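User: Could you check the structure of this?
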Amino acid sequence: MRRLAILLLWCGLAWPLRAQVVDTWAFSSPMVQEQALAVAAKIRCPQCQNQNLLESNAPAAVAMRHEVFAMTEQGKTESEIMSFMTARYGNFVRYQPALEASTLVLWGLPPLLLALIGIVLWRGRSKL
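Assistant: Sure, the predicted structure tokens are below.
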């Protein structure tokens, strides 16, 4: 038992420690903070891909988050910030890309597939 405890202690000490990024930002008002956090939650981290800017500690996400916070402090609206981020990083950073010719398949395919499944199910029931 003592050997197991020593082994576990040694493994715990040998495990590489990772430093966490501590993000401190002083907002001018709670309303500005709320707006900045709401915008940052709608932007995807380009490195992590499944996390928004608030969830990710990747260096790219930290830089983007600070950029969003600074733009919010400057009085920019959500649409202005989203337009800037989309122009700089592409449509990928938006969780809900705008309806454009390039994203038409992305928006149109789910309703089309749902309608197709409904038709197949309806036709299958009518044959019974």
